[in-house]
Amino acid sequence: MEIRKLLEEFSEEIIKDFVQKNSDYYLAKWRLLASKNSKISWNWSAFLFGVMWLGYRKMYLYSFIFVLLTIFTIIPILGLFISLALWIGLGMIGNYLYGKFTYNKLTELKIAFPEESKFQEEVLKAGGTSVLGSFIALFIAIFVWIIIMLLINALVMHQPYSYTNF
């Protein structure tokens, strides 16, 4: 499991340098996940802010996937359950996803920058949070929804009308 590898292969200092804000929170959650060999722990920020939290933590691929999955929420009635599953699911596995992302990014950086000082420098650049990323993720989600609504509107508007006399 990536979380256990993260804690074994990288020092606490490197992990904190990458995570930056709330690093103690994430380290505690990841230690708990590793000890239980689980992927589930609650993250209120992931649950409440969804795609914005993913963007804030620079997990852009995950935020794009999340937006694509929300397309299925337009299905009547079933869409409500899909929406709830997405939000609750992200709240449940958000810490795991961020740990996996952190491990993958640190591994990638370690390979690209084997010299320790350069590696630490790049960790600080690549890690942290991004308020801009949060808003970009939100605007992409809004843009995708606008496109979907326009497509649905175009399909509905081109349906043949039937008029009945009352």
Please give a structural write-up.
This protein is mainly alpha-helical. It has one domain. Helix content is 76%, strand content 0%. Helix 6 runs parallel beside helix 9. The termini are far apart. The mean pLDDT is 92.
Radius of gyration: 20 Å
| Shape by Cα distribution | elongated
Terminal residue distance: 67 Å
Number of domains: 1
- Biggest sheet descriptor: none
The low-pLDDT segments are none
Structural class: mainly alpha
Count of extended strands: 0
Give the topology.
Blueprint: H1 2-9, H2 12-19, H3 23-36, H4 44-49, H5 51-56, H6 60-70, H7 78-112, H8 116-126, H9 131-157
Transmembrane segments: 40-56, 63-88, 131-156
Keywords: Membrane, Transmembrane, Transmembrane helix
Pfam family, one: DUF2628
Summarize this entry quickly.
The chain has 166 residues and is mainly alpha-helical. The chain has helices at residues 2-9, 12-19, 23-36, 44-49, 51-56, 60-70, 78-112, 116-126, 131-157. The chain crosses the membrane at residues 40-56, 63-88, 131-156.
